Amino acid sequence: MQIILTATLTVSIPIDVHPIEGGGFWGEPTNLPGCVTQADTLEEFKVSMIEALKDHLEATPGMTEKEHRELAALQGIEFIPDRSYPRLYTFDPSDLPDDLEEC
Question: Total structural domains in the chain?
């Protein structure tokens, strides 16, 4: 049996943030290959990352494991946790907080 559950969740998402030589920051969530953003300041980065997460989570449920692995290979990422497939959920961008807490 399979069911699809739609729920509002609060989650903590680890984000790898890196300084850019010459100024600014770029980063991506640790377990969401392909969800990348950059900005001039950390505050702008947080806002940009929320938008990137919304876009990524809205788009990726239709991607297959093969497509994710191909994308990860292009980015130089070798390991994708198997527990992320299949993605049987509905994402509502309004569920995300307005800002991210700095870890």
Answer: 1
How would you write the pLDDT of the chain (103 residues) with one tens digit per residue? 777 777 777 888 899 999 999 999 999 998 887 889 999 999 999 999 999 988 887 775 566 777 777 877 887 776 555 555 455 555 555 656 666 555 4
Look at residue 36 and tell me if it is in a domain: yes
In a domain, residue 13? The reply is: no
- Which domain, by its residues, includes 74? 19-90
Pick from 54, 31, 57, 49: which is nearest to 100 by CA?
A: 49
Tell me if 83 is assigned to some domain.
yes
Q: Report yes or no on 100 lying in a domain.
A: no
